[in-house]
Design goal:
With 387 residues, the protein is an alpha+beta fold. The protein has 15 helices and 15 strands. This is Winged helix DNA-binding domain-containing protein.
Length: 387
């Protein structure tokens, strides 16, 4: 099956609810069902939901915070150490799908850099850390500093390396990730400027799937629906798992997918996978219309084959910076510009930098979309400037 980058982008825009000016689903939290929404950098999840909210069912700025507080939504660390945001009913399946087996190769890929030198035993130290985190969070919530202080009394020194930035000994985040994937740690709001942690299994109904491979296969399916056609390597990088674990999960959907998709005009275009059920949508994707401001950390930006979305290398460097990346402006299904927002009192100043060959920007529509995003930044409205 041969397609081009424009078809792939159109397929993904439809899957991400970015085909029209606003999303089609009246539930503003519906995008969480794809398992691709994260809150890294902080605020990214709300920005993504605002961008996709149905015009007649707008998202309240504090809706996600309220959903986490009423425990219909859970925030937890994923295998990439980013903060994933998923529905409470899905959280056990999501975590189970990402959790490596006790196979040392799979564990080492996820937590190897967080553990002291070992003789091939990663399962033992991980179990020790997960048990300690489970104990100190039992029946309570703790700020980040309080969690680490409690762990200093429970963990061996080898699992509490010195952190020059914090100027203290504390457990590395990889161990917190493993606690999260075992249902023993989630983020339940803030304690001042720090995250506040709780036990997931004491916060929501924690119902691990009867067949763990069902959850693992579902993770691959949801990935392919959002980011297909794709490769096993890109899936593993998106999920944050090692090569062996990624290969094991990838094979679980062999019977319901095809690996013969070639995408012309992009690097590593051959041998890509798509679900059989999605081949028609890929061949004949829906036309996209409307204007969207994608914020840094938006799910669409998490695909590893970035040239499908943006083939301008200089612009790509500005978007995918480790800290402080620019957002993207989508106009009728094409990437038209980069943008940055800066709060000036109660006004959000949005600076738009058009890309070459972008054509004329629809400034009235752009201003309306910026106004809708302004409350997320604590502003009453927005002013748009084209650089």
């Amino acid at each position: 099956m041969d397609v081009d980058a424009a078809q792939v982008l159109a397929f993904r825009l439809a899957a991400h609810g970015l085909t029209h000016g606003r999303g089609d689903d009246p539930d503003p939290l519906a995008p969480l069902a794809g398992w691709g929404v994260q809150d890294s950098p902080p605020g990214a999840a709300t920005g993504a939901l605002l961008t996709r909210a149905h015009a007649k069912h707008p998202l309240a700025v504090d809706a996600l915070t309220d959903a986490i507080a009423d425990r219909s939504v859970v925030a937890l660390y994923n295998a990439r150490t980013a903060t994933a945001v998923v529905g409470a009913a899905d959280v056990a399946a999501f975590a189970t799908a990402l959790r490596p087996t006790d196979d040392d190769t799979e564990l080492k890929a996820l937590v190897g850099s967080t553990l002291p030198e070992s003789s091939g035993d990663h399962a033992g130290p991980v179990a020790t850390a997960v048990d300690a985190i489970s104990d100190v969070l039992d029946g309570t919530t703790l700020s980040r500093d309080d969690l680490h202080e409690a762990l200093r009394g429970r963990l061996p020194k080898a699992l509490l390396p010195w952190c020059a930035g914090c100027k203290s000994h504390h457990a590395r985040r990889g161990l917190l990730v493993m606690a999260a994937l075992n249902g023993r740690l989630c983020l339940e709001g803030r304690a001042g400027r720090q995250p506040r942690f709780a036990r997931t299994d004491q916060t929501v109904a924690w119902r691990p799937p009867a067949d763990e491979d069902d959850a693992r296969a579902e993770l691959v399916r949801r990935y392919l629906r959002l980011y297909g056609p794709s490769t096993r390597q890109d899936f593993a990088a998106w999920a944050g798992v090692g090569t062996a674990q990624g290969k094991r999960l990838w094979t679980l959907v062999d019977d319901e997918s095809r690996d013969d998709v070639t995408v012309s005009g992009v690097a590593r275009g051959g041998g890509r996978r798509i679900l059989e059920a999605d081949t028609r949508r890929l061949a004949q994707p829906r036309d996209a219309s409307g204007v969207h401001l994608l914020t840094p950390g938006d799910p669409l930006l998490l695909a590893r084959d970035r040239d499908v979305l943006l083939d301008d290398r200089d612009a790509a460097k500005r978007v995918w910076k480790a800290i402080g990346g620019a957002g993207l402006v989508l106009v009728d299904g094409r990437v038209a510009a980069l943008w940055r927002g800066r709060k000036q009192g109660r006004r959000l100043d949005v600076t738009v930098d058009p890309l070459p060959r972008a054509g004329r920007l629809p400034l009235t529509k752009l201003a309306a979309v910026a106004d809708a995003l302004a409350p997320h930044r604590g502003c009453d409205g927005a002013a748009v400037t084209v650089s």
